[in-house]
């Protein structure tokens, strides 16, 4: 008898590869391999006033091989990310699609914390925060100033805030 499985719970002890992790032996699986219980409100007392709780393959091995991952984004009142192309005020129950790799932003314009749930088309999504990319590095401040059209003093101020040097 030949059995085919439609799932592959990640064996995080093994190597990761472009096609994902190796599968745990099916006989060792339990229901807990398919349940993620950490979607609770996160700590938003940070410089960004937001926190992402990820259920990516290294957090939730059950999504291995499914071509997706999910996350919970808690956004404190006043939170805003720095980029804008399209704007829309979402209401409870709304869904918005953001193309893969598209720069986007969120603003919590309400009077209390907001929560967003994410679904990504890959088990190992990464978020790149533009502020951190630009100002938490060791690139020379004059080079960053040339590429951002900010003056060197402002770049240095932002590098201090985001932990960069140079």
TrEMBL record:
Record keywords, A-Z: Apoplast, Disulfide bond, Glycoprotein, Manganese, Metal-binding, Secreted
A GO-annotated cellular component: apoplast
Residues reported in the UniProt entry to bind Mn(2+): 104
Residue span(s) of domain Cupin type-1: 37-156
GO function terms (MF aspect): manganese ion binding
Pfam families reported for this sequence: Cupin_1
CDD domains the UniProt entry points to: cupin_OxOx (cd02241)
SUPFAM superfamilies assigned to the protein according to its UniProt record, in alphabetical order: RmlC-like cupins
InterPro entries: Cupin_1, Germin, RmlC-like_jellyroll, RmlC_Cupin_sf
Disulfide bonds: 8-23
Highest taxon of source: Eukaryota
Localisation per UniProt entry: Secreted, Extracellular space, Apoplast
Family named by the database record: Belongs to the germin family.
Protein name: Germin-like protein
Lineage: Eukaryota, Viridiplantae, Streptophyta, Embryophyta, Tracheophyta
């Amino acid at each position: 008898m030949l059995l085919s499985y439609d799932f592959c719970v990640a064996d995080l002890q093994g190597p990761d590869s472009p096609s994902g992790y190796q599968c745990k032996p099916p006989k060792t699986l339990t229901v807990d391999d398919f349940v993620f219980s950490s979607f609770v409100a996160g700590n938003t007392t940070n410089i960004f006033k937001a926190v992402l709780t990820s259920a990516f393959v290294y957090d939730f091995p059950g999504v291995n091989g499914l071509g997706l991952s999910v996350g919970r984004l808690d956004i404190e009142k006043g939170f805003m990310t720095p980029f804008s192309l399209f704007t829309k005020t979402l209401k409870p129950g709304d869904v918005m699609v953001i193309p893969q790799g598209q720069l986007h932003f969120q603003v919590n314009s309400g009077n209390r914390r907001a929560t967003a749930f994410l679904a990504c088309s890959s088990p190992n999504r990464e978020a790149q925060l533009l502020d951190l990319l630009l100002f938490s590095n060791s690139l020379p401040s004059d080079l960053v100033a040339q590429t951002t059209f900010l003056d060197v003093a402002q770049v240095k101020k932002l590098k201090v805030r985001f932990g960069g040097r140079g």
